[in-house]
């Protein structure tokens, strides 16, 4: 996206760095996250309109090598957040120290100087603080704009250059006027605010054409919105005849999902679609396996094995054959790719590191049209490409599928039972008009059976647990407050219509301490 004006974000390891990027994009400006090692390169980018220095766990007074005096003297607008502010202070000759004044959570700050960055804000604002170190002496050319209640420096500005520092985090929703502050910063950067899904589609198609040329693409599709969008972008860019979507039915999909995938892709002219029926292979491989990590490993390894077999049939080792996958920006960041994140790798993603993918990546034969997008942006692109709203905004589904929602051993009978229960659950959520208010909802089949009474007879059936949460990005989640009458209808239908089940329970655990998935 070199030709699109953007704001760069230097990531020093803050847990909120991705949130900064999302907030800017929501305000209509494209943003990218970079490593501290790339500061000089980023500043030389012709499309750069502004720079944000993120927070981080480092100590600016002992670890300030990430920004030079030369770099800090640029006239491109800079906003330092938390550690970023402390870094600007140290580089300009100021002092940062660990004191008894630590601020975590909501704090009130007093604005002492009027400034365009704080336009339309009150004199006192509620902000979100999360720091142990503080600026105790300003650098040359800087002045204090705001202080917190105990006198700690909360915001600074340079007297000559368009540079600012905030000790608090404007990107989190707890900072009441955080969006306004970021919007004001974008005004200082003279950004056009023209970033949208259509803009991204145009740029993505141009990039695909340039990369693939006259070659062809094998696209890995799972039925989810990410791989669907990636495949559709390749078709739009290259034509359906050059794209070979490969869908592997593991037998662990939601009820009717395979048929849904086939219908959607063929409706977009994908005559080269390859649907692989591998249900028996996967279910056989999982026989007798109850440990969740072993199940994940078996499913992941077998998926790659089946994929390699099908790719070989398509002569996928050809040097003019590219692989397309639905990798998101967050996938690359969390897997330690793409931005050189200072924080530790969060987790490995199945679509970033397998050998077959790694080999193609090393050869420059990987096409990842979504690699600059966050999840919500992919959904908007999907709708723009003609994907039905219900599919574009479908709840997340784990890579191992129902293999980790059938707790204990996975058998064909238990998978079928869960598919029935899950289908009823989602039907009733849609009927109640609640689907879009929930971030993720699904049923779990527990490895226990309980006594029940049905038709004056004793029953001994399985327990189904229902899970529904609200969330922004899945990092944290709150339990969805279901109306009791809706839960009652769901429970009644599942017990009446799914023969093997005689009890339904609702999971009321938030994340943390629990996770969203059970396994």
Keywords:
Rossmann fold, 519 residues, 33% helix, alpha/beta
Shape: globular
Low-confidence runs of at least 5 consecutive residues: 336-352
CATH superfamily of the largest domain: HUPs
Overall helicity:
25-40%
Q: What does the largest sheet look like?
A: 9 strands, mixed
What Rg, in angstroms, do the CA atoms define? 26 Å
| Binned strand content | 15-25%
Strand order of the largest sheet: 2-1-3-4-9-8-7-5-6
Specify the number of helices. Answer: 16
Protein architecture, described:
The protein is of the alpha/beta class and 519 residues long. The protein has 3 domains: 6-188, 3-Layer(aba) Sandwich (Rossmann fold), CATH 3.40.50; 197-392, HUPs (Rossmann fold); 412-506, 2-Layer Sandwich (GMP Synthetase, Chain A, domain 3), CATH 3.30.300.10. The chain has helices spanning 17-26, 39-43, 69-72, 83-91, 178-188, 197-212, 225-238, 257-267, 279-285, 292-313, 329-334, 355-362, 375-384, 389-392, 412-431, 484-497, and strands at residues 6-10, 30-34, 48-53, 78-81, 95-111, 124-137, 142-148, 153-158, 163-166, 216-221, 243-249, 274-277, 321-324, 366-367, 440-454, 457-470, 478-479, 501-506. A 9-stranded mixed beta sheet has the order 2-1-3-4-9-8-7-5-6, with helices on both faces. Helix 6 (197-212) packs across helix 7. The radius of gyration is 26 Å and the shape is globular. The relative contact order is 0.09. Mean pLDDT is 87; it is low at 336-352.
């Amino acid at each position: 996206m070199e030709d699109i004006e953007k704001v760069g974000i230097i990531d020093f390891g803050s847990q909120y760095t991705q949130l900064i990027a999302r907030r800017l994009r929501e305000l209509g400006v494209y943003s990218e996250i970079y490593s501290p090692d790339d500061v000089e390169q980023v500043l030389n980018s012709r499309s750069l309109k502004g720079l944000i220095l993120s927070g981080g766990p480092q100590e600016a007074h002992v670890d300030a090598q990430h920004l030079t005096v030369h770099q800090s003297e640029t006239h491109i607008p800079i906003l330092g957040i938390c550690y970023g502010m402390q870094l600007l202070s140290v580089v300009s000759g100021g002092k940062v120290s660990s004191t008894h004044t630590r601020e975590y959570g909501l704090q009130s700050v007093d604005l002492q100087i009027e400034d365009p960055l704080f336009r339309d804000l009150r004199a006192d604002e509620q902000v979100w603080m999360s720091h142990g170190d503080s600026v105790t002496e300003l650098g040359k050319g800087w002045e204090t704009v705001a202080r917190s209640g105990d006198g700690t420096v909360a915001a600074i500005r340079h007297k000559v250059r368009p540079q600012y520092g905030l000790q608090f985090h404007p990107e989190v929703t707890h900072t009441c006027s955080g969006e306004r502050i970021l919007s004001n910063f974008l005004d200082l950067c003279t950004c056009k605010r023209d970033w949208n899904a259509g803009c991204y589609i145009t740029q993505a198609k141009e990039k695909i054409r340039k990369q693939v040329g006259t070659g062809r693409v094998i696209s890995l599709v799972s039925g989810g919105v990410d791989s669907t969008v990636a495949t559709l972008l390749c078709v739009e860019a290259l034509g359906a005849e050059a794209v070979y979507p490969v869908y592997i039915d593991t037998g662990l999909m939601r009820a009717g999902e395979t048929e849904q995938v086939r219908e959607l892709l063929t409706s977009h002219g994908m005559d080269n679609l390859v649907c692989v029926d591998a249900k028996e292979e996967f279910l056989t491989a999982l026989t007798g396996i109850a440990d969740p990590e072993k199940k994940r490993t078996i499913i992941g390894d077998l998926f790659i094995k089946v994929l390699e077999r099908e790719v070989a049939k398509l002569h996928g080792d050809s040097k003019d054959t590219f692989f397309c996958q639905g990798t998101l920006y967050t996938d690359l960041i969390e897997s330690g790719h793409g931005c050189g994140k200072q924080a530790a790798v969060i987790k490995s993603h199945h679509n970033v590191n397998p050998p077959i993918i790694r080999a193609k990546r090393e050869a420059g034969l990987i096409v990842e049209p979504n690699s600059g997008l966050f999840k919500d942006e992919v959904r908007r692109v999907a709708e723009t490409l003609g994907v039905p709203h219900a599919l574009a905004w479908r709840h997340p589904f784990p890579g191992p599928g129902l293999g980790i929602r059938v707790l204990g051993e996975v058998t064909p009978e238990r998978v079928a039972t869960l598919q029935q229960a899950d289908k009823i659950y989602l039907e009733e959520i849609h009927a109640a008009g609640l689907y879009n208010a929930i971030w993720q909802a699904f049923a779990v089949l527990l490895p226990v059976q309980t006594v029940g009474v049905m038709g004056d007879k004793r029953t001994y059936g399985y327990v189904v647990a229902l899970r529904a949460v609200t969330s922004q990005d899945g990092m944290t989640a709150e339990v969805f407050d279901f109306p009791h009458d809706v839960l009652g209808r769901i429970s009644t239908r599942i017990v009446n219509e799914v023969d093997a089940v005689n009890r339904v329970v609702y999971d009321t655990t938030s994340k943390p301490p629990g996770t969203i998935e059970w396994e």
